[in-house]
């Protein structure tokens, strides 16, 4: 359901989240816009606004339809105009559709409206691991957040928009929106946009001019050192992405502190939560992601009806690129594939063309992870130069226009002069991932040359994929690995590779360059496998003290409230662990905790030869289920009852790890990591007597 359909149909029951994600508009060749000239007064204490919107339309018309928040009373301001209520649409936000009838065709129409917008926070979650809070829109003493989801201005279909926004608030309040703010405080967004944001709060503002654009920081409490770090980082990231992709399309970029925990990327600013912006790693992880969205998503707009490509491409050129520059690209890709294995292989998969936005771990593993891997495979196929040229071509050709995967394909085909239709169709239009098994490997010597022959099978359910598998071979008297590629498009494919020196060992896709199902030998146990499990049992310690028993009960009940597939039992009530589900053991005194004897000592936990006393540290460990290697067993120990809330909040953020330890004061992380895996089934030893330096 998109906004155009909303204008065409009557008596619709609309899911607001879907509406927000499905707002493509027709963009004419010269990118005509509807211009909003908004003047408004906001009363945070009462949660109300009073506004006038004078719209300039691209063509003269005698009737204009628009959507507006149902809590706002609207009146016509154009002389002789009438407003007709067409319908009210029930959803998480009630929306009314109006028609303005003008006395004669005109390109200008004005309406006034007033009322309250005060929507509560709602949790967006998937599974018992928790989720994010969001609101459709709110005006309050804590702050103001208004976007298209609020329907706080007349939303008209068919054209992008530009705007002038003059918002008056009490003394001490500041506003932030797209575009630039003039000396009178009016925000002017002259570039075509798909919506208008208005954020307001009691901010301390910091600025820094730059060669690309002005850096800005808005903080709720003064912190010059924090602001300076973000101002500097903004300049660095803007310069990086302008060199890589093309000119930055705005005159400023602002970091804005929100009044609840968010990670939103808007045109020319980002809205981050108060805890998030103070995490030391955010400035080199999430922050470049939000800046890059000003190229992907906030300048080249997403055709959501054909799939959201923006999140995956942004993740690849931000999150992945930063890891790659630090030498950790392969590990990042392995973690991406593990997330897919943990959350999606056990849930309903969907193609990239059906991805709209992040609604939890499953949608994130597909929409971010699979898309990221698709762009990585495209880069591997074309090479760095053509890949960058394709990105620049796509950006140049679609700036301030709606674009989809077909537009991306056309850009890369133009620079590479290759037909990429089959690759795009395969990776964006179907579900699942290939899984590989290596069989019948044989080494044959012919004179001074050696031939390695064998077979690669695709073991996944469903049709085979067409894939180019990188193979790295270590040979005698050769310091570096020899890289080859094997083309596989059938269920089973044979191969022969020739070498001048004796081959010692072969690794198939060791750097995780292919989007695929990881072999079990490549996957350590992790918290993500527990949080992604369809069925989970919590086993509580009956012999613990009353206070600690209650603490573990609260932990289990918290997660059970979020997912009705969770069962809670006591260790005294069962003789063995269930074999058909993942299991959490709570408490080091749990009668089944001996399954973690490799790490539990008397009054302490041992991790990598370091001891952590149970009285001073809280910890979580994982291992494979002893009765079902496809499932995972977890153990949580709390140093005291006050650690419950912190562990419940923090542990889901460590989903890729096998273990983690927190101190007993502020639950600061003291240890985390993944258990080493056994030799991968995709690594083949060709000479047992040879030594293999890592």
UniProtKB/TrEMBL annotation:
Domain Peptidase M1 membrane alanine aminopeptidase intervals: 289-427
GO terms assigned for molecular function: metallopeptidase activity; zinc ion binding
InterPro entries: M1_LTA4H, Peptidase_M1_dom, Peptidase_M4/M1_CTD_sf
Domain of life (superkingdom): Bacteria
SUPFAM superfamilies to which the protein is assigned, alphabetical: Metalloproteases ('zincins'), catalytic domain
Pfam families per record: Peptidase_M1
Protein name: Peptidase M1 membrane alanine aminopeptidase domain-containing protein
The species this protein was found in: Solemya velesiana gill symbiont
